[in-house]
Each structure stands twice: as structure tokens, then as C-alpha cells.
Amino acid sequence: MPIAFVYINAEPNGKKEVLEKLRAIPEVKYSYEVDGIYDIIAKVEAKSLGDLTDTISERIKKIDRIRYCVEQIAIEE
After folding, report:
1. What is the pTM of this model?
2. Which residue blocks in the chain are alpha helix, DSSP H?
3. What span, in angstroms and rounded, lies between the C-alpha atoms of 36 and 32?
4. pLDDT (tens digit, 9 = 90+) per residue, 39-50?
């Protein structure tokens, strides 16, 4: 099962809203507000690599109040 970690920067005062929307996406297995360069880290799992990249590009990156995000696809567990 393909897995990606998505590192997100949210607009000021937008973290809670972004987290709520992330947690409503079934492929997002975990999401955490973090301190540091990024505001939120999410673990995303899907049935196929295509589904994984679609979830990231079509659902996560289109969430309002996200400034930008970077994803890393896990190669091996």
C-alpha cells in the first residue's frame, strides 16, 4: 500500500480548519499540528500510487487556507 508524508504550511490562524478538512479525507490516516518549518504533517495511504497522487493533488492541495505543501512518497517500509 503506497504511503506519503505531506508537510503543510497553512495560512495564519488556519491550522485548525486545515486539520479538520484533512481528517475528513479517508486516505489521511494521521495528521498532526507541529512546531517548526511546517505547521502540519499528514500520513496518507491509498490502494495504488495513482490514488495516492490523486488524493494529494486533487484533495489535499486544494484545501483552503493551505499556503503550500511538500510530499514525500515512501519507497519502502
Report:
1. 0.92
2. 15-23, 49-54
3. 12
4. 999 999 999 999
